[in-house]
């Protein structure tokens, strides 16, 4: 048999094992998980394909007419057929800005969680594996970090940065700053969970066997122990992405997140809040609904993953 045939056979076997696994079985029998996953895929796919499916480009100033500002959705009497969900205060098509805004919010959420995961996994592995003074020092650092809320740290850091370097530079670095602040503020969630898993795993026979074979600490931690700690990481990540998106939206609402020229869901909600009582409710309400739905389905998926990954909780 050729190498291609063997590779195809191996892939077929993996797919068959996946479809026969408890993970797939529980997913197909959980209607909430199916609906949540479907909605998330639709929203994430729409955000990813925003440049293709969006009616207009909210970044293209030549395509925006200020005379079209605050037009209601097309289904209302005063609506315009060109704008399905209406327009914002700058005359941008709201559907387009929501699609691009979801893209920005998801990018910040995913990148911030990747940073959290990297820091938390490295610190948690080191703390649990080496123990002793290193464990005490790293966990006290985590306790200190947890004593400050993410929002408080983010507000202080971003406000100081904006005041020190000016709004123009901040607008250019807003996404990077949000990723760094949200990511660094939340690493203890991963570190403490990974540490607990490592404390249980490092006493098992396969770790002792790896030590006897002369493997280094780094290889044992990342090649042998870490793969057995992936389940809690996956569950935490699902919830943390939703939390990161909420944090970004809250900071944008407070004027410390994404600038108006680079719409995120939080920035859209913030920009339309002053118009909500004047009758232009759609500028804030529709992006708010999208944000709530996005966060809700991710939290529901996180709850389902937690139950499936923990046999003691999952009842089938």
TrEMBL record:
Q: Give every ABC transmembrane type-1 domain span.
A: 102-302
Record keyword Membrane present? yes
Q: Name one Pfam family in it.
A: OppC_N
Q: Which GO terms describe its cellular component?
A: plasma membrane
Residues crossing the lipid bilayer are 32-54, 106-132, 144-163, 169-187, 229-255, 275-302
Q: Which PROSITE patterns does the record cross-reference, listed alphabetically? A: ABC_TM1
Which residues are in coiled coils? none
Compartment(s) of residence:
Cell membrane
Look up and give the membrane topology term.
Multi-pass membrane protein
* Keyword flag Transport: yes
The alphabetical list of record keywords is:
Cell membrane, Membrane, Transmembrane, Transmembrane helix, Transport
Q: Which PANTHER family match?
A: ABC TRANSPORTER PERMEASE PROTEIN, OLIGOPEPTIDE TRANSPORT SYSTEM PERMEASE PROTEIN APPC
- Protein name according to UniProt: Dipeptide transport system permease protein DppC
UniProt organism field: Parendozoicomonas haliclonae
The taxonomic lineage of its organism, from the top, reads:
Bacteria, Pseudomonadati, Pseudomonadota, Gammaproteobacteria, Oceanospirillales
Gene of this entry: dppC_2
